[in-house]
Model the fold of this input.
Amino acid sequence: METQHIVLTAGEPYRPSKARDRSKAEKVAILLASLENSVAVNLLKKLEPDDVKQIVEASGKLGSLNVGDVDPLIAEFSSEFAEALGISAGSSKMATLMETAFSSGEVAKIMGREPIQEPDSVWVKFKSGSEATLVPYLLDESEQMVAVILSRTPPELAAKCIAMFPRSMSTNVISRMINLGEIAPFALKLVEETLREDFFSVKTSEDKGAKIAKLAAVVNRLDRQRSLDLLQDLAITLHEEMKSLRKLIFMFEDIESMAQPDRMKLFDRVPVEVAIPALFGTEASFREAILTSMGARARRMVESEMQGDTSKPKSETPGARRKIADTALLMARNGELELSATAAAAPAAPP
Done:
């Protein structure tokens, strides 16, 4: 079958000039003629043979067409399509869709408007030194959320935060940062608003006590050398808060510097099964200071278990040491003993 080609020209419109005066087949023929060939071919393939025949026959009666013949049909088709699907394309609906899909800057660019000046980005407000308050906050979040946040903070700050995490968490967060995919704009906006509220609002800026306590909990779980290095750095950026922070820092190694009466109070509270693994890997002088702080029965039990090579820590050693240090902190908070080693463990704040 020979197909009649439809030609759109800038000449006079072919009669009839109104879209409503045309048959359905003629309307379809005009719309198909206005499409790219590949799109029109794909549409034709989806039609029934009888329908294709009617469209081809109708196209033979159209002759040359003016652009004015096409526009009314497009408007009519769009209106009927939206009505059939119950679509509302009001400005409020489209604005919602645009805000969900794009940032305000992207919307302004698409619409050819000047970008609206947004508040200062929350990410640039996090400076080096913010790790003191950011890390305790991140420890309460999922590792995926931590990866999202640190991927947008300054690299130096992100590195300091990761160095303060427990080793297993550091590895997982770095892995997630490397494999982090695209984040939906609305989700990222929600994260930014939450951080701005939690860190930079007036009502939260005064809540330093809780943040210092969380920071102390982080430092207390690092190995001694890492904790001392961190405290040295923090003394520069948090010199006003260091007095409060030093009172909350206590590690197992600090027990040797405690007064003997306080050590005795502590190990009167510590179960023998916790003290034994904690002492593996300690120096003889340190171990003797602990043993002399125990009751006679507890000391005999510990010495009985520590025969042979005790130079290397056991798998339970880190956890046992942390339990003892936490017990000392709790007793100090309750006024039961003095942690005299605290001042020696933490560096003094600069003048």
Remarks:
- The first strand starts at residue 7 and ends at 9.
